[in-house]
Amino acid sequence: MRDDTDILIGITSIMIGKYTNQMQAALLLEGNFTSSPLPGLIKQLQTVFNRLGMPLTCPGMSSTYVQMFGPNDLQVTIEFMARPADHGVFAGTLGSPISTMLVPDATDRIRRHKSHLLVYVQHGVFGGVMREKGISSLFNELGMHQPGHSLAEFLERIKVLSIACETICAEMPASLIHWTQSNMVFSSANFTTVVGEPIGPLTVHPCLYGPEPPRGSAKQYVGIHTLGAADYIGREIHVEAAPVPWTELYAGALSFIKIATEKNGYIIPDGDIFGVEDDSVSFRVCHVGANPEQGLSDHYQLTLRYSREHGYTMPDAKRRLTVPGGVDGVERLIGTATPEARAQLRRMRESAALAEGVGGRLVVTRPADEPPQNPGRAGNARIIPFGKRTGL
Question: With contact defined as beta carbons under 8 Å apart, do 290 and 297 qualify?
């Protein structure tokens, strides 16, 4: 078993995500507006946010632009464009099968719209430029906290932008919402179904790909590359293709993010396995470094090992046996006489504490075809409840 100590210790105390500061949504409008809708919208937005205990002040506004300020250095900006948006900016999302699934007539909605609103939410005056080259590193060199650079503030921006979009859609005919952080598009109707759970389709785009199936297999294989996971965990997630519905793979990716962002959460270490409590599905985790030649940045790779519902077991999976008694059972097998055995037991207990911290438990396994006394071949798997599956 590898030494995972550098990964396991202190993971809950560091900020691991990118936490995009300036969040943006574009709302496409089909109606003809003889005058700017901003004055009426701003009054309604202020009313809604006041009721929620987040008062927004508006020092001044023009017919096409308004900036409001709220608590915790929050800024909300809205622009009204009396012209269609550039159709080219939608090319990426229209090429995604998920967009077609969510809004089958998205192309027609984009073609029909006459004007649009841009809504921005950020923390701090530098929120809109924090991703520009050199700005973030300058803050680090000066030992200054980057504005909005925490999970709590990122989730607050998601909440504020979601409420703003819902409020606008209740006041005027928005035919399409483009959530640019994840490059997802929604109708106003299905937008309301995804805003309740931020770690889902709203902020994590499942980009599907379908490679050729292995020789001799007639089943269709599908895999997922995420767009948006890095905001939560610093890297995107690649789920290797498997002959199961894409929703099974997407649920695994979302669970990986949720485990990392829970209270006492952590990044599941390289080589470990996680799944649901009843062992009906499990994934192996691999931390993959950047590969510039293939255009890949650092990412987390998930490989589906087993899915009971879909009758799938990965081809090279070896049968493993659970060690009775968990870590205590391993101690009975290998003892504590050697430094190596003591170090292995310490790492396992650290792993067990992390899993229990997020409501899961550690299950220790060993290869079924090898003697149980061989400590170098013991494995560990975090069995974590997935929670609610996505409704897509």
Answer: yes
Look at residues 23, 345, 40, 80 and name the one whose alpha carbon lies nearest to residue 170: 40
Q: How far apart are CA 259 and CA 268, in angstroms?
A: 8
Tokens at residue 236, please?
A: 């995107």
| Residues facing 70 on adjacent strands | 74
Count other C-beta atoms under 10 Å from residue 288's C-beta.
14
Predicted structure pTM score:
0.85
Candidates 359, 334, 360, 356; CA nearest to 345 is 334
296-321 tens-digit pLDDT:
899 999 999 999 999 999 887 777 77
Q: What secondary structure does DSSP assign to 50-77, as a single string?
A: HHTT---B---B-SSEEEEEETTTEEEE
Phi, psi of 79 (to 5 degrees): -120, 135
Kindly state the helix (H) or strand (E) to which residue 27 belongs, with its residue range: strand 23-29
Q: Are strands 379-383 and 281-288 parallel, antiparallel or unpaired?
A: unpaired
Q: Is 229 exposed, middle or buried (0-12, 13-18, 19+ CB in 10 A)?
A: buried
- CB half-sphere exposure, 331, CA atoms < 13 A: 12
- Which of 254, 151, 154, 239 has its CA nearest to residue 200? 254
Q: For residue 338, what are the CA distances in angstroms to 21, 44, 81, 286? A: 50, 69, 71, 29
**CB proximity list for 51: less than 8 A, separation 6 or greater:** none
Which pLDDT score is estimated for 14?
Answer: 41
